[in-house]
Specification:
Structural class: alpha+beta
Shape: globular
Strand content: 15-25%
Number of helices: 9
Order of helices and strands: EEEEHHEEEEHEEHEEHEEHHEHHEEE
Low-confidence stretches: 305-310
Length: 400
């Protein structure tokens, strides 16, 4: 194939098309650079996806453009690419790529994948997770030191309940802590155990950590337990993020002084060659969820909606600004809103601007809302017609 390059990966030859295509415009890194990075940290990268059904998150035009999510493996694929039928809560299913070997990783990168997004299960038992995942998601304005403090609290809770936690940077703003578990628990049970961790961390670090699900109610670092739901995936260890930074496994003694911005492809490649993989010790330390499920029972149910059953009533003064196919369009709509309401805009705190990356059928779209909690009632702008009102389901509804 003209312009293609053949790489050897795990004993197979993989064709890399358009190898010189720039994936990271800010640094000039190409598709071939990305493939070579994953091969250089191959043992660690493979450990993160091995035997796991994986959603393909494809940046076909580079990281400056929005990706699309492809659950179903392409019909046209090499015969050595293995798939597994993964069933979702919606009742739909998809034949997803299984991360078997380095050749599979290289093939995924050739399709435009930058980071790798596996489920928390391994084939053939894809109904029982073998990892409990704690995703620390800070609201805007939270200092890195507080994120680390919450990570250390999560470590302590997991350890006290018989699990062996492993830390990594997320490659973005947050932090991840994984704990291997013996397969056998269902997705709802693992999610309940993770929620117990979140509530316990919140009780130990009040004002810094939160387990509140609704975004407008969060302050500090959200301990996201819902990443353990059946339909969720999390970026794997050694994944390169659109930021250009790597989701980097660490030893716990490195965590307090770590700087996530330093973990670039070049740095992590050298680190892996010199020090190996801190997560190599994950094998053989699978633990039980019995203690965390007992904690969950002791914590009791969360308080119910005081207004009764049915649709949740917002507890904060929220207005919606935009629903946009492209994030840039949503941000422009926010800037326009601030221009129309400068007095209210000046009173907003960073966490009052709620920017959500939402998943449609195959791609993400952006929703922006404003929490007017810090704006006096007489200065609060009303809900206005959305300047950008993208409908990700247009054309997919019956009768449309």
């Amino acid at each position: 194939m003209p312009g293609a390059e053949i790489v050897e990966a795990g004993g197979r030859e993989v064709t890399i098309t358009n190898p010189d295509r720039v994936v990271f415009p800010s640094t000039g890194h190409t598709k071939l650079d990305l493939v070579r990075y994953y091969l250089a940290v191959g043992g660690g990268a493979l450990r993160g996806v091995a035997d796991r059904p994986t959603v393909l998150k494809r940046f076909v035009h580079g990281v400056d453009e929005e990706p699309f999510f492809q659950k179903r493996a392409p019909a046209k694929r090499p015969d050595w690419i293995e798939v597994a039928e993964f069933r979702y809560p919606s009742g739909r299913s998809a034949e997803e790529v299984i991360g078997r070997d380095l050749a599979t990783i290289a093939w995924c990168v050739n399709l435009g994948c930058v980071d790798l997004n596996p489920h928390s299960v391994r084939f053939p038992d894809i109904d029982h997770p073998d990892e409990l995942r704690v995703d620390l998601d800070p609201v805007p304005g939270v200092p890195w030191e507080e994120i680390i403090e919450v990570a250390l609290q999560a470590r302590d809770v997991l350890t006290e309940h018989g699990l062996t936690p492993f830390p990594k940077t997320s490659g973005s703003r947050g932090f991840h802590v994984y704990a291997p578990i013996t397969p056998g628990w269902t997705y709802p049970q693992v999610r309940k155990a993770a929620e117990a961790v979140a509530r316990e961390v919140e009780s130990r670090a009040p004002g810094i950590a939160t387990s509140h699900w609704w975004k407008e109610e969060r302050q500090g670092v959200f301990v996201d337990f819902n990443q353990n739901a059946r339909d969720r995936t999390t970026v794997s260890a050694y994944s390169v993020r659109p930021t250009g930074r790597v989701s980097t496994p660490l030893a716990w003694d490195e965590v307090p002084g770590c700087d996530p911005e330093t973990y670039t492809m070049e740095v992590v490649t050298a680190r892996f060659e010199e020090r190996g993989d801190p997560w190599a010790a994950m094998d053989g330390v699978e633990g039980s969820l019995d203690s965390l499920l007992a904690l969950s029972k002791a914590q009791g149910p969360r308080p119910k909606n005081p207004k009764g059953a049915g649709r949740r009533e917002p507890t904060m003064p929220l207005i919606e600004i935009a629903r946009a196919e492209k994030k840039d369009d949503a941000v422009k709509a926010l800037d326009n809103w601030k221009g129309r309401h400068p007095e209210a805009a000046a009173l907003l705190e960073p966490a009052d601007v709620l920017v959500d990356s939402m998943r449609g059928r195959s791609s993400t779209w952006t929703r922006i809302r404003i929490n007017l909690q810090h704006v006096p009632e007489d200065l609060r702008p009303p809900q206005e017609p959305l300047e950008v009102d993208f409908d990700p389901w247009a054309g997919l509804r019956p009768g449309s």
